[in-house]
Write a structure and sequence with these properties.
10 strands, 12 helices, 17% strand, Conserved hypothetical protein from pyrococcus furiosus pfu- 392566-001, ParB domain
Length: 353
C-alpha cells in the first residue's frame, strides 16, 4: 500500500462514537455542543439530522475533499449545513462538501440549520453563502490581474443576491442575508484596494493615525466573514504606535491582504485563532505579524507564498502579493515562514521622516 493510500485510509477511518460531533462531545444530545452551535447561529435552531434524510445536488468533479475529510474526522462537522424541508426529508442549500465528507466517514447525523424558504430564494441564498468558499474562478491570465475581475464580479453577484433576500426574508434569514451582504461588500472593497496597491497607483495623502485603530478597523471589517467561518481574530498591540511616517491607507490595504492570504490556511481547522501583533523595532521600523497555530504549512506553501506566477484570480494570492507590495512601498520586506504548528507572516516597514 502506498503512502497516499494509507493517508486516505486514515482520513476516511470511521469514528466509533462521535458521529458528526467534535472529539470532546461523546453524544449527539450533549447539551454543551448544542448550546455552542445555537450561539454561533445567532438564535437559529440547530438540529442533528440523519444523513439519509438529506438530499443535495452532486458536486463538480475535482473538488479537493481530502483536507476537509481529515478535519471532519478529527473535529466533526463544526459548521452546520444550511437546509430546507422537503416532503421526504431535507434539501441542502449550502454545505454539499461537508455532507459528502460526512458520508465518506459514514456519519449517521450532521448538524443543520433548517430554513423555510421559497424556491426563488434558494439559488440566491446558496450563491450568497459562497462568501466562505469563493476561491479561484476562471479568468484571463494574459494580462496582469485581469483574472481578478471575475472574482470581483462573483462578490458583486453575492451582494445583489444578499440584498434581494434582505427585503424578502424575515427573522434569522434576513439577518443572515444582511451579514452576507456586509461580508461580500467588505471583501470586494479590500480586493480593489489590494489591486490598487499592486498597481503602484498614487496613494492618498497619509494621515497620522493609531496603528491599533487601523488594525481594529480591518478586524471589524472581517468580523462577519470570520463569524460565519468560526474564526477568531485577536489583536495584540502593547505599545502606543502611530502611523506617522507610514501610509495609513496602504497599511490598511496590506493588512487586509494579509488576512485574505492567511484565512484559507485555517478554514478547515477546529476553532482557529489568528493573532495580529504590532511593534516598533530598531527605532524607525514598524513590524506587523499575522500568526496562526492551527494549521501546519508545508515548505512548498512557504516557497510559493509570494510567487507572482500563482493564479491571479485567487484572493489569497492577491492578498499575499499586496503584503509584499506594502513592505516594498515602505523600503521594508515581508517574510512568510512555517512554525511547528502553524505559520507567521511578518511585514517590516521603515518610517519616513
Amino acid at each position: 500500500m502506498s503512502d497516499n493510500d494509507q493517508e486516505f485510509d486514515r482520513a476516511t477511518e470511521v469514528p466509533s462514537i462521535r458521529e458528526g460531533l467534535p472529539r470532546q462531545y461523546q453524544m449527539r444530545a450533549d447539551r454543551h455542543y448544542v448550546d455552542q452551535l445555537a450561539a454561533q447561529s445567532a438564535g437559529d435552531p440547530v438540529r442533528m439530522i440523519p444523513v439519509n434524510q438529506l438530499d443535495a445536488e452532486p458536486l463538480d468533479v475535482g473538488h479537493p475533499l481530502r483536507p476537509l475529510i481529515e478535519s471532519i474526522r478529527l473535529h466533526g462537522v463544526v459548521h452546520p449545513l444550511l437546509v430546507r424541508r422537503r416532503e421526504t426529508g431535507y434539501h441542502v442549500i449550502a454545505g454539499r462538501k461537508r455532507l459528502t465528507a460526512a458520508k465518506t466517514l459514514q456519519f449517521t447525523t450532521v448538524p443543520c440549520l433548517v430554513r423555510d424558504v421559497a424556491d426563488a430564494e434558494v439559488e440566491a441564498l446558496a450563491a450568497a453563502d459562497n462568501v466562505r468558499t469563493i476561491g479561484s474562478v476562471a479568468g484571463d491570465h494574459g494580462s496582469a490581474w485581469l483574472g481578478a475581475i471575475p472574482l470581483l464580479s462573483a462578490h458583486m453577484s453575492g451582494i445583489a443576491a444578499s440584498a434581494g433576500l434582505c427585503g424578502a426574508g424575515v427573522g434569522g434569514l434576513q439577518q443572515h442575508a444582511l451579514d452576507l451582504l456586509k461580508a461580500h461588500a467588505w471583501r470586494a472593497g479590500r480586493l480593489i484596494e489590494a489591486l490598487t496597491l499592486l498597481a503602484n497607483a498614487p496613494a492618498a495623502p497619509p494621515r497620522a493615525r493609531s496603528i491599533a485603530g487601523i488594525i481594529d478597523e480591518v478586524v471589524d471589517g472581517f468580523a462577519v466573514e470570520c463569524r460565519l467561518a468560526n474564526v477568531t481574530l485577536r489583536v495584540e498591540v502593547r505599545d502606543v504606535l502611530s502611523s506617522a511616517g507610514l501610509n495609513d491607507g496602504q497599511l490598511a490595504a496590506g493588512l487586509a491582504g494579509a488576512l485574505m492570504a492567511v484565512l484559507p490556511l485555517v478554514t478547515n481547522t477546529f476553532q482557529p485563532t489568528i493573532v495580529i501583533h504590532a511593534t516598533n523595532a530598531n527605532g524607525n521600523e514598524t513590524v506587523i505579524e499575522v500568526i496562526q497555530h492551527n494549521a501546519p504549512v508545508t515548505s512548498h506553501v512557504v516557497e510559493r507564498f509570494f510567487d507572482s506566477s500563482r493564479p491571479q484570480d485567487d484572493p489569497a494570492v492577491i492578498g499575499a502579493l499586496a503584503v509584499k507590495a506594502l513592505a516594498e512601498a515602505h523600503d521594508g520586506h515581508a517574510v512568510f515562514e512555517a512554525l511547528s504548528d502553524g505559520s507567521r507572516l511578518a511585514i517590516t516597514m521603515k518610517r519616513r521622516s
